[in-house]
Amino acid sequence: MPENRETLELRTALRDRARSAGAKQAFSTLLQQARPGMTGSGPKSSTSTTAKQKGYVMIDELAFIAYYVQDISKAAAFYRDVLGLRQGELCNDEWVEFDVGNATFALDGTGEALGIAAGSSSGAAFETKDIDAMRERLIEAGAAISEVYDFPPCRAAFARDPEGNRFIVHQRKTGLRD
User: Fold this and answer.
1) Cα 111 to the chain's mean position, in Å?
2) Strand ranges (E), the chain
3) Three-class SS state of 86
4) How far does Cα 167 stand from its chain's mean position?
5) What is the percentage of the chain residues whose pLDDT exceeds 70?
6) Is the CB of residue 94 less than 8 Å from the CB of residue 110?
7) Running DSSP on this structure, what letter comes out for residue 153?
8) Given a cut of 80, is residue 11 above it in pLDDT?
9) Whole-model pTM above 0.90?
């Protein structure tokens, strides 16, 4: 999903704030700015029950997340060879899928035709067991990546693929895995 100018400005401000004020404060600020006026941990279960009772169609799962790229071969090589994603069955000159746990991460070479600029995607957070090693691997591959930030439930580093798409390398802290 492409980011609008306000979202990009918020993310840039957050990144700058994280560098100067510390990662924990930046994370807290992001949550406050991303959810103005919202409190609590999310919607109440009664909302879902009410929606089901009213016959609304409910979302069952995340089908896939797609990042828009110009050079699909180069992008596929990056996600496959550098990040180590397992390529799925669907793969052609315009679309490449990767199996990531119970979800699918896809690269889409048709974004321009849809009005979506290549390199403008963000939102994917890839879980790893060793964030420090993954960060080093990305640096060795020439990828832009932040330092590793320490949050209460996890550690995370913010990176860009060769086309500028943003993603997160994430590691849950010990004891928080299922």
Assistant:
1) 18
2) 65-68, 86-91, 95-100, 103-108, 124-127, 144-145, 149-150, 154-160, 166-172
3) strand
4) 5
5) 68
6) yes
7) S
8) no
9) no
